[in-house]
Amino acid sequence: MPLSPEELRSLASFAAERTADGLLCLDTDGKILYANESAARTLGQPASTLAGRDIYAIASEMNPALWKELWKEIRTNSSFSFEFQLSAAGGRPVHVELIAHHLEPAQRELACVFFRDIEERKRLQSLQQEFVSTVSHELRTPMTVIREGVAQVVEGLRGDINNAQERALTLALNGIERMGRIIDELLDISKIESGKILLKRERIDVAALAREVGGTFQSLASDRGLDLRVTTPAGPVMLYADRDRVIQVLTNLVGNSFKFTEKGHVQITVSSREGEVECAVSDTGIGLAAGDLEKIFNKFEQLGQVSFTGEKGTGLGLSISRGIIEHHKGRLWAESAGAGKGSRIAFVIPRLSGRDIFAEQLTGMLKEVARRGGTLSTVIFRIEHLGPAPATDAQLTAALTQLEQLVRRESGRLNDLFVKDVDTLYMALQSTVKREAARIADRVVAAFQESLTSQKLDPHFHLACSIASYPEEAADEETFLGMIFKREAA
Amino acid sequence: MAKILVIEDDPNALEMLRFRFKKAGYDVSEALDGDEGLLKALRQPDLIFLDIRIPKIDGWELCRMLKSEPRTKNIPIVILTGCDQPVQEEYGKSCGADAYLTKPWDPKELMAVTRSLLSRQDES
């Protein structure tokens, strides 16, 4: 016999009370109408006190604009999930993962919010990452002694050795070197997963980079009798990216292709599209079965394929590559027509402007400064070309490089942020008040003007400059960002 | 004979470095912590190898001290550390080090750095 409506109602209230997740029911104004026991426990106050208070009292990060946004989201998509920080009794922060549902059909519009404390999960995650990083560092000390000791014997520094001994120790050295690479990769993975990877993004020519990486594989290609092709657009393909990291990804992809291609070709293709750049490495190798296309990105996943080079990888390369590309806000994926039919691994990186990159990195810096309570000033230099003929890219690049050198000379410190765009140099100076920033800017403008005059370029170029300081001129981060770019445009 | 000072708290790594440098014909002095390292640096070796995680004075700090002291500021310093590269490169630049090597180092690179820094020393 099915449950009667009454039984169903008591089941619903029983479930709401007993579930391990916190449950809140709120109206459109953000007033809490109901809180279950778990919510009370997580937030450290009785359910009866919670009811009647409003969302702002238990979520310091919540504001009316965000609340409105949340309602818009749940009205259109019926639910919305995100990670958030709630404040428990005494202001103690609680990290939660929450999902908000639009509760219908109720007599009035209600939001039903489930949440789960993820403090413990976060703690375990960071413990695990710390563990990997500590272990890796600790392993390096004994490895140093092993590698150096074995190398000294192989080199004959410790006396003569015979061929058989030399052979054994050379293999041992290979093993040690491989172990070193595994440690590097483990550290990379732990940095990527904890978000601690620092990208040094600058404007780079990806086409030139692809040719450079291709070049490093040329001798391997001829040794293996494989055809290595690099196809790029004729001109430069400019993109903001971390040069070393993009080389690492391309090297990993091309290296994989070489490992699993016996004959035919390996091809690197760079294509420039609206808003993004795509790089792909394709080959005529062993290919991938449809079910393996995603599997290869799992950590330590090795499909049991023996490589043609006899090398054994760590199974971390592709997860690292994907992590690096995702930190560039891009995507990396695999395609294959099937086993035996070659494969194509491609990634796209969105083409952001220098200003986007600056705004993004500055936001992080501002949060840090706000937390510590410090000062920060931004200076934006724009090189304006006054004619008569339009400036060529080369002229602008030369002028900008010169400007950058001057700026680094006048202010170069480790914590400063520099982002170069075609004709603009964005910089953020930590622990610098407006007066000091203005002094630096004046010196740069004067030095730049002087160099223009000495090159007889002064009628053609002009250096515009705008300065803003935090928290001197804008107390909150958002207003500050708005102000910077408004001034830049002026 | 060029004098190399090795500041390293792991006695095994220290022995390895001492052996290699002596075989290559260099004169080697050693220090196991930051204080001792500072004292021996004042005796003006031609090149210093400096580990980062050493007792008493941390390697970055010691490097900064040596590079700001008139008697030692011209001695090239090679940072040796188990930390990963990019971070190290940044710190290395800010503390004035002349080169850095990640543990476990490549013996060929170790000797190449040694030779190149010592020859720069000869020229000046």
Give a written overview of the molecule.
- The complex is a heterodimer of chains A (490) and B (124).
- Chain A is an alpha+beta fold and 490 residues long.
- Chain A has four domains: 12-117, Beta-Lactamase (2-Layer Sandwich), CATH 3.30.450.20; 122-194, Orthogonal Bundle (Helix Hairpins), CATH 1.10.287; 201-350, Heat Shock Protein 90 (2-Layer Sandwich), CATH 3.30.565; 354-489, Reverse transcriptase/Diguanylate cyclase domain (Alpha-Beta Plaits, 2-Layer Sandwich).
- Chain A is built from 14 helices and 16 strands.
- In chain A, the strands form four sheets. Chain A has a five-stranded antiparallel β-sheet with strand order 2-1-5-4-3. A five-stranded mixed β-sheet of chain A has the order 7-9-10-12-11.
- In chain A, strand 4 and strand 5 (110-117) form a beta hairpin.
- The relative contact order of chain A is 0.06.
- With 124 residues, chain B is an alpha/beta fold.
- Chain B has one domain (3-119): 3-Layer(aba) Sandwich (Rossmann fold), CATH 3.40.50.2300.
- Chain B is 48% helix and 19% strand.
- Chain B has five helices and five strands, in the order E-H-E-H-E-H-E-H-E-H.
- A five-stranded parallel β-sheet of chain B has the order 2-1-3-4-5, with helices on both faces.
- In chain B, helix 3 runs parallel beside helix 4 (85-95).
- Chain B is globular.
- The model of chain B has no long low-confidence stretch (mean pLDDT 88).
- At the A-B interface, helix 6 and helix 7 of A face helix 1 and helix 4 of B.
